[in-house]
Each structure stands twice: as C-alpha cells, then as structure tokens.
Amino acid sequence: TGVTKSEANSRAGQLLQELGMTGLEQRRIGQLSGGQAQRVAIARARATQAQVVFADEPTGALDSRTAADVLALLLRSTSEQGRALVMVTHDKDVAAACSRVVRLRDGQIVKQIPDSQAD
Length: 119
Description:
Distance between the termini: 40 Å
Strand content: 15-25%
Structural class: alpha+beta
CATH architecture: 3-Layer(aba) Sandwich
C-alpha cells in the first residue's frame, strides 16, 4: 500500500494488539483458532483501508461467544472507519445486528429490511 516494510509491520502489530492478538504475530493461519483467524481477517481488511469490506459467513465456524465478539468487532471497526460492510450469512442473529438486510432465494431478492428489524 505504498509504505515501508517497517511501517507495515508497525501497523500490523498495532492492529493485532487492538484485536487481542499480541504475541501471536509469528503464527501461521493454521496455528490459530477459528476466532483468531477471523480477527486476522478483520485486521487485514482494516490494513488495506478498502472502502467496502466483504465478509462471507464471518461467524459460521465459531462458538456463540466468539461469534458475538467477532461480529461486534467487525461491525465496530467498519463503522468507525466509515466503511461499508457487505456480509453473507445464514445466521438470523448475525443478520439482526446489521443495519440493512437483503434476503435472497434462488438468486432473487425476496425481502429487504432497511433497519435492524430482521426476523
């Protein structure tokens, strides 16, 4: 992204610290838990400074407590930075946390919910 390796490493360390991952910087993705891997994905999305963050079932393989933590972190980190979050999920609780829900069936929009009133 046009920064030196030193700057990139410093920023990565800062992001991992914010996500509670301090001390795990040298681990490979396969050495992390599901929640830790999701946090790394969030850090990666934040580091790129993309205007739109895409998340495909970001809580799908997590226990309920870790899923809630990851969802809160993802929602907070994107809204704080003024980014759009486009998330795909089958979990109604995850959808209910979103400001807009678009339901699809067979590739067609069947329902749009403009606020967090997902049922």
